[in-house]
Design a protein that fits this description.
Structural class: alpha/beta
Strand content: 5-15%
Distance between the termini: 100 Å
Number of domains: 1
Number of strands: 8
Helix content: 25-40%
Shape: globular
Protein backbone atom coordinates (compact mmCIF):
# COMPACT_ATOMS: atom_id res chain seq x y z
CA UNK A 1 0.00 0.00 0.00
CA UNK A 2 1.46 3.26 -1.12
CA UNK A 3 1.34 6.28 1.10
CA UNK A 4 -0.17 9.47 -0.25
CA UNK A 5 2.32 12.09 -1.22
CA UNK A 6 2.42 14.97 1.21
CA UNK A 7 1.35 18.36 -0.03
CA UNK A 8 4.32 20.50 -0.96
CA UNK A 9 4.77 23.29 1.52
CA UNK A 10 4.84 25.93 -1.20
CA UNK A 11 1.61 24.86 -2.94
CA UNK A 12 -1.07 27.57 -2.83
CA UNK A 13 -4.13 26.76 -0.78
CA UNK A 14 -7.53 27.66 -2.26
CA UNK A 15 -8.75 30.98 -0.95
CA UNK A 16 -12.24 31.14 0.46
CA UNK A 17 -14.52 33.82 -0.86
CA UNK A 18 -15.77 36.13 1.80
CA UNK A 19 -18.52 38.69 1.75
CA UNK A 20 -19.67 41.17 4.30
CA UNK A 21 -23.37 40.73 3.59
CA UNK A 22 -25.93 38.75 1.56
CA UNK A 23 -25.86 38.83 -2.24
CA UNK A 24 -28.12 41.39 -3.86
CA UNK A 25 -29.23 41.52 -7.47
CA UNK A 26 -30.31 44.65 -9.33
CA UNK A 27 -33.70 44.46 -11.05
CA UNK A 28 -32.38 46.48 -13.99
CA UNK A 29 -29.23 46.32 -16.03
CA UNK A 30 -26.75 49.15 -15.48
CA UNK A 31 -27.18 52.22 -17.61
CA UNK A 32 -23.83 51.72 -19.30
CA UNK A 33 -23.31 49.57 -22.39
CA UNK A 34 -26.16 47.26 -23.31
CA UNK A 35 -28.12 48.46 -20.31
CA UNK A 36 -29.26 51.43 -22.32
CA UNK A 37 -30.94 49.11 -24.79
CA UNK A 38 -32.94 47.06 -22.31
CA UNK A 39 -34.17 49.68 -19.87
CA UNK A 40 -37.73 50.99 -20.10
CA UNK A 41 -38.15 53.72 -22.70
CA UNK A 42 -41.68 55.12 -22.38
CA UNK A 43 -40.65 58.35 -24.07
CA UNK A 44 -39.62 56.46 -27.21
CA UNK A 45 -43.11 54.97 -27.55
CA UNK A 46 -44.75 58.38 -27.18
CA UNK A 47 -42.50 59.95 -29.79
CA UNK A 48 -43.25 57.11 -32.18
CA UNK A 49 -46.99 57.57 -31.68
CA UNK A 50 -46.80 61.33 -32.20
CA UNK A 51 -44.74 60.93 -35.35
CA UNK A 52 -47.16 58.38 -36.79
CA UNK A 53 -50.19 60.45 -35.90
CA UNK A 54 -48.77 63.55 -37.56
CA UNK A 55 -47.95 61.60 -40.72
CA UNK A 56 -51.46 60.13 -40.83
CA UNK A 57 -53.02 63.59 -40.50
CA UNK A 58 -50.78 65.08 -43.19
CA UNK A 59 -51.44 62.21 -45.60
CA UNK A 60 -55.19 62.40 -44.99
CA UNK A 61 -55.37 66.17 -45.47
CA UNK A 62 -53.36 65.86 -48.68
CA UNK A 63 -55.57 63.03 -49.95
CA UNK A 64 -58.94 64.73 -49.41
CA UNK A 65 -58.60 67.30 -52.22
CA UNK A 66 -57.16 64.65 -54.55
CA UNK A 67 -60.13 62.36 -54.02
CA UNK A 68 -62.54 65.32 -54.32
CA UNK A 69 -61.18 66.02 -57.80
CA UNK A 70 -61.24 62.36 -58.81
CA UNK A 71 -64.91 62.09 -57.81
CA UNK A 72 -65.72 64.70 -60.45
CA UNK A 73 -63.85 62.87 -63.20
CA UNK A 74 -65.00 59.81 -65.16
CA UNK A 75 -63.19 56.50 -64.94
CA UNK A 76 -62.03 54.21 -62.14
CA UNK A 77 -59.41 56.53 -60.62
CA UNK A 78 -61.76 57.50 -57.78
CA UNK A 79 -62.05 53.80 -56.89
CA UNK A 80 -58.33 53.05 -57.17
CA UNK A 81 -57.03 56.01 -55.16
CA UNK A 82 -58.65 54.86 -51.85
CA UNK A 83 -56.69 51.61 -52.18
CA UNK A 84 -53.43 53.56 -52.35
CA UNK A 85 -54.57 55.80 -49.51
CA UNK A 86 -55.37 52.94 -47.12
CA UNK A 87 -52.23 50.98 -48.02
CA UNK A 88 -50.11 54.05 -47.26
CA UNK A 89 -51.86 54.49 -43.90
CA UNK A 90 -50.91 50.93 -42.96
CA UNK A 91 -47.26 51.64 -43.72
CA UNK A 92 -47.33 54.91 -41.78
CA UNK A 93 -48.59 53.23 -38.60
CA UNK A 94 -46.15 50.31 -38.87
CA UNK A 95 -48.70 47.67 -39.91
CA UNK A 96 -47.52 45.16 -42.50
CA UNK A 97 -50.20 43.43 -44.57
CA UNK A 98 -49.84 39.92 -45.98
CA UNK A 99 -52.37 38.64 -48.53
CA UNK A 100 -52.88 34.90 -49.00
CA UNK A 101 -55.03 33.68 -51.90
CA UNK A 102 -56.38 35.29 -55.04
CA UNK A 103 -58.49 38.45 -54.99
CA UNK A 104 -61.62 38.22 -57.14
CA UNK A 105 -61.89 41.09 -59.65
CA UNK A 106 -65.09 39.97 -61.38
CA UNK A 107 -67.01 43.13 -60.46
CA UNK A 108 -69.24 43.72 -58.73
CA UNK A 109 -67.93 41.57 -55.88
CA UNK A 110 -69.37 41.38 -52.39
CA UNK A 111 -66.51 40.79 -49.94
CA UNK A 112 -67.72 39.46 -46.57
CA UNK A 113 -65.33 39.17 -43.63
CA UNK A 114 -64.90 39.11 -39.87
CA UNK A 115 -64.66 42.36 -37.96
CA UNK A 116 -62.38 42.89 -34.95
CA UNK A 117 -61.12 46.46 -35.16
CA UNK A 118 -61.15 49.83 -36.86
CA UNK A 119 -57.89 48.60 -38.38
CA UNK A 120 -59.93 46.33 -40.65
CA UNK A 121 -60.83 49.42 -42.68
CA UNK A 122 -57.19 50.24 -43.34
CA UNK A 123 -56.15 46.65 -44.01
CA UNK A 124 -58.97 45.65 -46.36
CA UNK A 125 -59.12 49.09 -47.94
CA UNK A 126 -55.46 48.73 -48.88
CA UNK A 127 -55.87 45.42 -50.71
CA UNK A 128 -59.41 45.58 -52.16
CA UNK A 129 -60.82 48.01 -54.70
CA UNK A 130 -64.22 48.33 -53.06
CA UNK A 131 -66.45 50.54 -50.90
CA UNK A 132 -67.15 49.86 -47.24
CA UNK A 133 -70.58 49.55 -45.69
CA UNK A 134 -70.48 50.96 -42.14
CA UNK A 135 -72.95 51.96 -39.46
CA UNK A 136 -73.89 55.63 -39.31
CA UNK A 137 -72.31 56.09 -35.87
CA UNK A 138 -68.83 55.74 -37.41
CA UNK A 139 -69.36 59.02 -39.24
CA UNK A 140 -69.29 60.81 -35.88
CA UNK A 141 -65.72 59.85 -34.94
CA UNK A 142 -63.08 62.55 -35.57
CA UNK A 143 -60.47 61.65 -38.19
CA UNK A 144 -62.30 58.39 -38.92
CA UNK A 145 -64.99 60.30 -40.80
CA UNK A 146 -62.28 61.94 -42.92
CA UNK A 147 -60.78 58.54 -43.71
CA UNK A 148 -64.26 57.24 -44.55
CA UNK A 149 -64.86 60.08 -46.98
CA UNK A 150 -61.67 59.32 -48.88
CA UNK A 151 -62.72 55.67 -49.05
CA UNK A 152 -66.26 56.50 -50.26
CA UNK A 153 -67.79 54.60 -47.34
CA UNK A 154 -71.53 53.96 -47.37
CA UNK A 155 -73.19 54.68 -44.01
CA UNK A 156 -76.34 52.84 -43.00
CA UNK A 157 -78.52 53.74 -40.02
CA UNK A 158 -80.25 50.34 -39.61
CA UNK A 159 -83.52 52.07 -38.84
CA UNK A 160 -86.50 50.22 -40.23
CA UNK A 161 -87.80 53.37 -41.83
CA UNK A 162 -84.65 53.82 -43.92
CA UNK A 163 -83.51 50.21 -44.45
CA UNK A 164 -85.28 49.86 -47.78
CA UNK A 165 -83.91 53.12 -49.14
CA UNK A 166 -80.36 52.30 -48.05
CA UNK A 167 -80.59 48.81 -49.56
CA UNK A 168 -81.75 50.29 -52.87
CA UNK A 169 -78.79 52.69 -52.82
CA UNK A 170 -76.33 49.82 -52.32
CA UNK A 171 -77.97 47.82 -55.10
CA UNK A 172 -77.65 50.80 -57.43
CA UNK A 173 -73.94 51.09 -56.65
CA UNK A 174 -73.35 47.42 -57.37
CA UNK A 175 -75.34 47.62 -60.58
CA UNK A 176 -73.03 50.47 -61.59
CA UNK A 177 -70.00 48.19 -61.07
CA UNK A 178 -68.88 49.08 -57.52
CA UNK A 179 -67.81 46.25 -55.24
CA UNK A 180 -68.70 46.35 -51.53
CA UNK A 181 -66.99 45.24 -48.32
CA UNK A 182 -69.42 44.03 -45.68
CA UNK A 183 -69.03 42.84 -42.08
CA UNK A 184 -72.04 40.54 -41.50
CA UNK A 185 -71.28 40.14 -37.78
CA UNK A 186 -72.81 43.59 -37.31
CA UNK A 187 -70.25 44.63 -34.70
CA UNK A 188 -66.60 44.17 -33.80
CA UNK A 189 -65.40 41.53 -31.32
CA UNK A 190 -62.41 40.71 -29.13
CA UNK A 191 -60.43 39.08 -31.93
CA UNK A 192 -60.49 35.57 -30.43
CA UNK A 193 -63.53 34.34 -32.35
CA UNK A 194 -65.92 35.14 -35.20
CA UNK A 195 -69.51 35.99 -34.30
CA UNK A 196 -72.37 34.41 -36.29
CA UNK A 197 -73.07 36.18 -39.58
CA UNK A 198 -76.44 37.90 -39.74
CA UNK A 199 -78.39 37.17 -42.89
CA UNK A 200 -80.04 40.61 -42.96
CA UNK A 201 -76.72 42.14 -44.03
CA UNK A 202 -76.61 39.94 -47.14
CA UNK A 203 -79.78 41.27 -48.69
CA UNK A 204 -77.77 42.89 -51.51
CA UNK A 205 -75.76 39.75 -52.31
CA UNK A 206 -77.94 38.89 -55.32
CA UNK A 207 -76.71 42.02 -57.08
CA UNK A 208 -73.10 40.77 -56.97
CA UNK A 209 -71.56 38.58 -59.63
CA UNK A 210 -69.36 36.92 -57.02
CA UNK A 211 -69.26 36.67 -53.22
CA UNK A 212 -65.82 36.21 -51.66
CA UNK A 213 -65.36 35.37 -47.95
CA UNK A 214 -62.35 37.00 -46.26
CA UNK A 215 -60.59 36.18 -42.97
CA UNK A 216 -58.50 38.91 -41.29
CA UNK A 217 -56.24 38.19 -38.31
CA UNK A 218 -53.52 40.30 -36.68
CA UNK A 219 -50.94 37.57 -36.21
CA UNK A 220 -47.57 39.26 -35.59
CA UNK A 221 -46.31 41.73 -32.98
CA UNK A 222 -42.71 42.87 -33.20
CA UNK A 223 -41.92 40.01 -35.58
CA UNK A 224 -43.19 37.35 -33.15
CA UNK A 225 -46.47 35.37 -33.31
CA UNK A 226 -49.30 37.21 -31.59
CA UNK A 227 -50.72 35.42 -28.57
CA UNK A 228 -54.09 35.64 -26.90
CA UNK A 229 -52.87 38.34 -24.53
CA UNK A 230 -51.91 40.47 -27.56
CA UNK A 231 -55.44 40.52 -29.04
CA UNK A 232 -56.57 43.68 -27.14
CA UNK A 233 -53.74 45.57 -28.83
CA UNK A 234 -55.65 45.25 -32.13
CA UNK A 235 -59.25 44.41 -31.24
CA UNK A 236 -61.58 47.35 -30.65
CA UNK A 237 -64.91 46.39 -29.15
CA UNK A 238 -67.37 47.05 -26.36
CA UNK A 239 -66.97 50.44 -24.66
CA UNK A 240 -63.33 50.94 -25.67
CA UNK A 241 -62.44 54.53 -26.51
CA UNK A 242 -61.16 54.91 -30.03
CA UNK A 243 -58.60 57.59 -29.17
CA UNK A 244 -56.91 55.71 -26.32
CA UNK A 245 -56.94 52.44 -28.26
CA UNK A 246 -55.31 54.05 -31.30
CA UNK A 247 -52.73 55.81 -29.10
CA UNK A 248 -51.72 52.55 -27.43
CA UNK A 249 -51.37 50.81 -30.80
CA UNK A 250 -49.33 53.63 -32.36
CA UNK A 251 -46.81 53.43 -29.49
CA UNK A 252 -45.91 49.84 -30.37
CA UNK A 253 -43.44 48.62 -32.95
CA UNK A 254 -44.13 46.90 -36.26
CA UNK A 255 -47.02 44.45 -36.44
CA UNK A 256 -48.65 42.38 -39.17
CA UNK A 257 -52.11 41.52 -40.44
CA UNK A 258 -52.83 38.53 -42.67
CA UNK A 259 -55.73 38.68 -45.14
CA UNK A 260 -56.91 35.25 -46.24
CA UNK A 261 -58.93 35.41 -49.48
CA UNK A 262 -61.14 32.35 -49.78
CA UNK A 263 -62.48 31.08 -53.08
CA UNK A 264 -65.43 33.11 -54.43
CA UNK A 265 -68.78 31.71 -55.46
CA UNK A 266 -71.82 32.94 -57.38
CA UNK A 267 -74.65 34.03 -55.04
CA UNK A 268 -77.18 32.25 -57.26
CA UNK A 269 -75.66 28.94 -56.14
CA UNK A 270 -77.02 29.48 -52.63
CA UNK A 271 -80.65 28.65 -51.81
CA UNK A 272 -81.19 31.79 -49.71
CA UNK A 273 -79.33 34.45 -47.77
CA UNK A 274 -79.64 32.55 -44.48
CA UNK A 275 -77.72 29.63 -45.93
CA UNK A 276 -75.22 32.08 -47.40
CA UNK A 277 -74.67 33.76 -44.03
CA UNK A 278 -74.28 30.42 -42.26
CA UNK A 279 -71.81 28.92 -44.75
CA UNK A 280 -69.77 32.11 -45.18
CA UNK A 281 -69.53 32.43 -41.41
CA UNK A 282 -68.18 28.89 -41.09
CA UNK A 283 -65.63 29.49 -43.84
CA UNK A 284 -64.36 32.79 -42.42
CA UNK A 285 -64.26 31.42 -38.86
CA UNK A 286 -62.23 28.35 -39.88
CA UNK A 287 -59.71 30.46 -41.76
CA UNK A 288 -59.35 32.91 -38.88
CA UNK A 289 -58.82 30.05 -36.42
CA UNK A 290 -55.95 28.70 -38.53
CA UNK A 291 -54.26 32.10 -38.58
CA UNK A 292 -54.69 32.68 -34.84
CA UNK A 293 -53.09 29.30 -34.11
CA UNK A 294 -50.20 29.95 -36.53
CA UNK A 295 -51.19 27.09 -38.80
CA UNK A 296 -50.39 27.22 -42.53
CA UNK A 297 -52.89 29.62 -44.08
CA UNK A 298 -54.82 28.20 -47.03
CA UNK A 299 -57.87 29.58 -48.86
CA UNK A 300 -60.97 27.48 -48.41
CA UNK A 301 -63.71 26.70 -50.90
CA UNK A 302 -67.42 26.64 -50.24
CA UNK A 303 -68.47 23.00 -49.61
CA UNK A 304 -70.11 21.35 -52.59
CA UNK A 305 -73.01 20.26 -50.40
CA UNK A 306 -73.82 23.89 -49.59
CA UNK A 307 -73.73 24.94 -53.23
CA UNK A 308 -75.60 21.89 -54.53
CA UNK A 309 -78.49 22.34 -52.10
CA UNK A 310 -79.94 24.98 -54.40
CA UNK A 311 -80.14 22.52 -57.26
CA UNK A 312 -81.47 19.58 -55.26
Amino acid sequence: MEAAEPTPPDSPEPRRLRRNGPLSFSRKLPEAGLGRVFVDRPLGGRLRAVRRLVLVLLWTLASLPVQAVLLLLPGRAKARFPKLYHATLCRLIGLQVQVVGEICHDRPVLYVGNHASWLDILVLGGVLEARFVAKAEVNGYPLVNLIARVGRTIFVSRNRGTTGREADAMKSLMQAGDSLILFPEGTSNDGTRVLPFRSAFLGVAREARQVQPVSVVYDRVGGLPARRRDRPLFAWYGDMELGSHAWWLLRHGTSRATVLMHQPFAPAEMPDRKAMARECGKLVSAGAADLRQNRPARPRAMPATALSSHHA
